[in-house]
Amino acid sequence: MERTAALELLKKYNRDRFHLQHALTVEGVMKWFAAELGFESEQPFWGVVGLLHDIDFEMFPELHCIKAPELLREAGADPALIHAVCSHGWNLTVEIKPEHLMEKVLYAADELTGLIWAVAIMRPSRSIQDLELKSVKKKYKNKAFATGCSRQVIEDGAVLLGWELDGLISKTIEAMRSCEHQVEQELAQIAPQ
């Protein structure tokens, strides 16, 4: 699926600015990881998976990753895209285990991007650009902070990838830095305040 069609599909099922921002952020993060991990030729696919990973969450939160296959099939998505999108719900809503490295990255980074963003918006800059690992780790340890971001999923994702948690967090901060400005620009176009 081409990026333009994926963005239109995202907007069809997501209107909330927060959900759109999260989708654009995860898209950028996934593209960064594709390049970082030697999958440059697959960057567009990794990006579309990130963009559409929560396709069903806003309208069908109780059917997250369960309704997604139907919505994606109707739009002509191929089985690899559907599997990748649904695999980030592994052991939460579905039993579709992340298999490809890209799926493992999505599983690990999805929740983490939310937590990192929650830390960033509490800072004077309200930006990822000056955010450091130690600030994220401090908030990560506070279970009352960003309670919607599952630490267990993040930790399970790090294990799936065979990475240390600090490495996963550091790389995800760097990935978010790489796309923050572009996300802000596109969000202003598709969901003006």
Keywords:
globular, 193 residues, mainly alpha, 9 helices, 64% helix
Q: Give the rounded overall mean pLDDT.
A: 97
Q: What general outline do the C-alpha atoms trace?
A: globular
Beta fraction: under 5%
Structural class: mainly alpha
Question: What is the overall number of helices?
Answer: 9
State the end-to-end distance: 29 Å
Number of domains: 1
Give the topology string: H per helix, E per strand: HHHHHHHHH
Number of strands: 0
State the major sheet.
none
Taking all Cα atoms into account, the compactness measure Rg is 15 Å
Helix share, percent: 55-70%
| Poorly predicted spans | none
Explain how this protein is built.
By secondary structure, the chain is mostly helical. The chain has one domain. It contains 9 helices and no strands. It is globular. The two termini are 29 Å apart. The mean pLDDT is 97.
